[in-house]
Design a protein that fits this description.
The chain has 6 helices and 2 strands. It is mainly α and 191 residues long. A hairpin with an 8-residue loop joins strand 1 and strand 2.
Length: 191
């Protein structure tokens, strides 16, 4: 393409969008989540969060730098996205591939809260969380049709194992993710 959306908006003006699109390639190389329903929401959320990390979290809104925000990581509801799994929108495939951009708000909000709860700046927290997510994409044998809960539980298992093996993951990242995933109803203490 020429760096424009189908409606003519220039995507290369926003580093978060560029990071988002590059992250799709990384995910395709390692996890290859199917871009529909919950697995597609995981894919879109990881692209949003890592894209925002690449852009330095200048804004919590994806696309804001280009003048056309489409999602907000801090407050998914601003763009009609759920931020709790109990509010998941089970849509037909004809509608946004089963709601991949809509339901990505559940994981977006959780990842944003996890990053923000870590010591240091939001950007430092986002880098720590993104590093774990990228390593997990590489190291975990994800199902292409993973559910949001599968991703949350698998990420926590990977995080805790990595922290115990002292593989550049620190326990506070695992604790922050555990709390954020539970708050988003992706996991519970009994799961």
């Amino acid at each position: 393409g020429d760096g424009r959306t189908t409606t003519g908006q220039v995507v290369t003006d926003a580093l978060d969008i560029v990071g988002h699109e590059f992250t799709h390639s990384v995910i395709s190389a390692f996890a290859d989540f199917v871009i529909e329903r919950e697995s597609g929401a995981i894919n879109e959320s990881l692209c949003d969060f890592i894209g925002m990390t690449v852009a330095g979290h200048a804004s919590t809104q994806i696309g804001a730098a280009a003048g056309w925000a489409v999602r907000d990581l801090a407050t998914p509801g601003l763009f009609g996205q759920p931020d709790l799994y109990g509010d998941f929108q089970d849509l037909p495939l004809e509608d946004d591939n089963g709601g991949v951009h809509i339901n990505s708000g559940i994981l977006n909000g959780a990842l944003y809260r996890a990053a923000g709860s870590l010591s240091g700046s939001l950007q430092e927290g986002a880098i720590r969380v993104s590093r774990l997510l990228l390593n997990g994409l590489r190291d975990v044998a994800w199902s292409p049709q993973s559910l949001l809960e599968d991703f949350a539980v698998g990420t926590l298992i990977y995080c805790n194992q990595s922290a115990q093996a002292a593989r550049s993951v620190d326990s506070p990242v695992c604790e922050a993710l555990a709390t954020a995933f539970e708050d988003a109803e992706l996991t519970s203490p009994s799961r």
